[in-house]
Write a structure and sequence with these properties.
Layout: E1 2-8, H1 13-24, E2 29-33, H2 38-47, E3 55-60, E4 63-68, H3 70-84
Parallel strand pairs: 1-2
Antiparallel strand pairs: 1-3, 3-4
Length: 85
């Protein structure tokens, strides 16, 4: 199964936009809320070499592909649309 995973904060407008984009497209996704876990956010930022949230992954079984942040997700989805044409 392919799905998207978002690491972020509900209070972050870019995290909310990433969630909204996936929700509107009815793509399977999960939002990992880390508002109260700054250590966990730091861990994932370091793990994926990201400076900000959201951190968006495309997951398929055990494989995780880093998409990036919100603007990267927008580009990824546009590329998916182009490939479907």
């Amino acid at each position: 199964m392919i799905y998207y995973q978002i690491f972020g904060r509900a209070s972050c407008p870019y995290c909310a936009k990433a969630w909204e984009l996936l929700n509107l497209r009815e793509l399977p996704h999960m939002f990992c809320e880390m508002e109260d876990s700054p250590e966990l956010i730091s861990y994932y930022k370091e793990k994926y070499n990201m400076k900000t949230v959201p951190i968006v992954l495309r997951r398929e079984n055990e494989h995780a592909e880093l998409i990036g942040g919100c603007s990267d997700l927008i580009k990824h989805l546009e590329n998916e649309d182009e490939q479907d044409k």
